Amino acid sequence: MRYPLIHQKIFNEPWAIEPSAYNAVRQSYLAHCGISATIDGQAIDPAQISLGATGDSPASFARIGRVGIVSMSGILGKRLSGLETMCGGCDLDTYRAAFDAAYLDPKIDTIIQHAHSPGGIVTGGIELADHINALAEEGQKEIITYTDTVCASLAYLIGSQSHRVFAAPTARVGSIGTVVTLENRVKADAKAGISYRTYATGKFKDLGNPHREITDAEDAAIIKELHALNDTFVAAVSRARGISVDQIRSLEAAVFRGSQAQDKALTDGTADTLAELIEKI
Fold it and tell me: 218 by DSSP, 3-state: which?
């Protein structure tokens, strides 16, 4: 395996990400490794979705008057490598550093989280959302989220902690949910005439091994973890947006256009462009 750490993240880590982006990430990785496969019955062209590199320094923020703009662009992840950020990833630690720098800048009264992200790996994202929520509760500066493209799943969790959320009418918002994929190579191993035997202490020590069938106990454990993460996700959105947990669950992780998202109370209004939003506020 050429990229074991990336492979582990894609096929074993829980994600909070828009479905089309998740499929594109997996398909792109498999294609890069020379593996021909369809995912969930779909063959997706990676070019169909932008992974969001902006060319700007990831630790910087822009200032327009007394408004600070922090760019949340790309697939979100914790402690991403240089290769991952070069491929369009947005490192959560770097983003937090940029956000905090804008928050501490005395020349800034309002911070805009400019989102262009379908979401990403759950790890670290919930903590960042809590951090932004705490700063919003302090009330020293107004925090606003705006997207003119996509702000979904983990990106929406982080963005929802702002005082207000805006989107362009055709932007995509929502996908409040979690997902994990486990690879199963049992049939491929049999076809290649390869067999594996793993020795481990504890029934969950070998969880996620793609060279054997998953057990019922492992299946239940994964589902339990996924629902626990989703409960935290939903509770955080409910806390920040004032929407009931039941109402959020009823959305079934759907994605909505900007005007529809306002009807679902996921946003507070629309603006065609960032410049228009800045003029409004």
Answer: helix
Number of H helices, E strands in the chain: 11, 12
Distance CA 190, CA 193 (A): 5
Tell me the residue length of the chain.
Answer: 281
- pLDDT tens figures, 107-163: 999 999 999 999 999 999 999 999 999 999 999 999 999 999 999 999 999 999 999
Predicted confidence (pLDDT) per residue in 188-203, tens digit = 999 999 998 889 999 9
Both tokens of residue 281?
């506020």
Counting Cβ atoms within 10 Å, is residue 43 exposed (0-12), middle (13-18) or buried (19+)?
exposed
CA gap 150, 118 in Å, rounded: 6
CA 161 to CA 183: how far, in whole Å?
Answer: 34
Instruction: Compute the C-alpha angle 68/110/171, nearest 5°.
Output: 75
pTM of the model: 0.80
Instruction: Please name each of the domains of the chain with its CATH number.
Output: 4-176+253-280 (3.90.226.10)
